[in-house]
């Protein structure tokens, strides 16, 4: 997971594939491979936005995105085959449907991920993801309601302020967005890169 967050998904997959060779039905392992494929697809999508990219390159990256998304879906579905009430399979499918442009299915899956999350931290992560889906689909009010509920429940979690300030900015409340970024910067973060995102947003 650290390698994925460090933008080195190829190496991450090597390690996790070894885990799955030893334990093929390890849900966390299957999810993490699926998420690595998903992250690689997102990276290719970002490359496709590069100005001046050629038509041939667009076709190549588009094919890569499609293949990687299907590989991620296979892993997420495997998680649900092993245990249909495990949060990670639903979380993965939520990410998958969001990138496929099906916000309704993405919301349904992420709500199940929140429901089945086994602890506070993973529940908060899933609620952040749910808020991001609402925001991506243009439902800013639902995004804000979800985030504010998360902050009330987990007030010391800095990561939530990334999506919160983004939603406030999208709603046009710039002053409040700046205020919440500054609050978030004083809190705890899962990854150093999350704090860097808040500084960049500020």
Give short descriptive properties of this protein.
globular, mainly alpha
Structure description:
The protein is mostly helical. The chain has 11 helices and no strands. Helix 5 runs antiparallel to helix 6, helix 5 packs parallel to helix 7 and helix 7 runs antiparallel to helix 8. It is globular and about 50 Å long. The two termini are about 25 Å apart. About 40% of the residues are buried. The mean pLDDT is about 90.
- Tell the overall outline: globular
End-to-end Cα distance, whole Å, is 27 Å
Class by SSE composition: mainly alpha
In this structure, how is the largest beta sheet organized?
none
Low-confidence stretches: none
H-E order: HHHHHHHHHHH
- Radius of gyration, in Å, reads 17 Å
Task: Give the helix level as a range of percent.
Answer: over 70%
- What's the number of helices? 11
Describe the secondary structure blueprint for this structure.
Layout: H1 2-5, H2 9-22, H3 27-48, H4 55-82, H5 87-99, H6 103-116, H7 120-136, H8 140-153, H9 160-171, H10 174-184, H11 192-201
Structure summary:
The chain is mostly helical. It is 79% helix and 0% strand. The protein has helices spanning 2-5, 9-22, 27-48, 55-82, 87-99, 103-116, 120-136, 140-153, 160-171, 174-184, 192-201.
């Amino acid at each position: 997971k650290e390698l994925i967050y460090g933008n080195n998904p190829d190496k991450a997959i090597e390690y996790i594939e070894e885990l799955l060779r030893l334990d093929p039905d390890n849900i966390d392992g299957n999810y993490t491979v699926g998420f690595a494929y998903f992250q690689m697809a997102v990276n290719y999508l970002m490359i496709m936005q590069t100005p001046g990219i050629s038509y041939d390159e667009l076709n190549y990256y588009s094919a890569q995105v499609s293949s990687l998304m299907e590989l991620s879906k296979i892993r997420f579905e495997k998680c649900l085959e092993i245990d249909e009430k495990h949060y990670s399979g639903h979380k993965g499918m939520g990410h998958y449907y969001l990138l496929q442009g099906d916000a309704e299915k993405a919301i349904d899956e992420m709500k199940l991920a929140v429901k089945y999350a086994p602890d506070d931290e993973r529940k908060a992560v899933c609620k952040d993801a749910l808020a991001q889906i609402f925001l991506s689909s243009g439902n800013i009010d639902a995004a804000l309601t979800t985030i504010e509920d998360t902050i009330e429940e987990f007030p010391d979690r800095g990561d939530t302020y990334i999506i919160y300030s983004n939603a406030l900015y999208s709603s046009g409340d710039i002053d409040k967005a700046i205020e919440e970024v500054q609050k978030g910067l004083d809190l705890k973060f899962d990854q150093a890169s999350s704090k860097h995102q808040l500084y960049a947003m500020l």
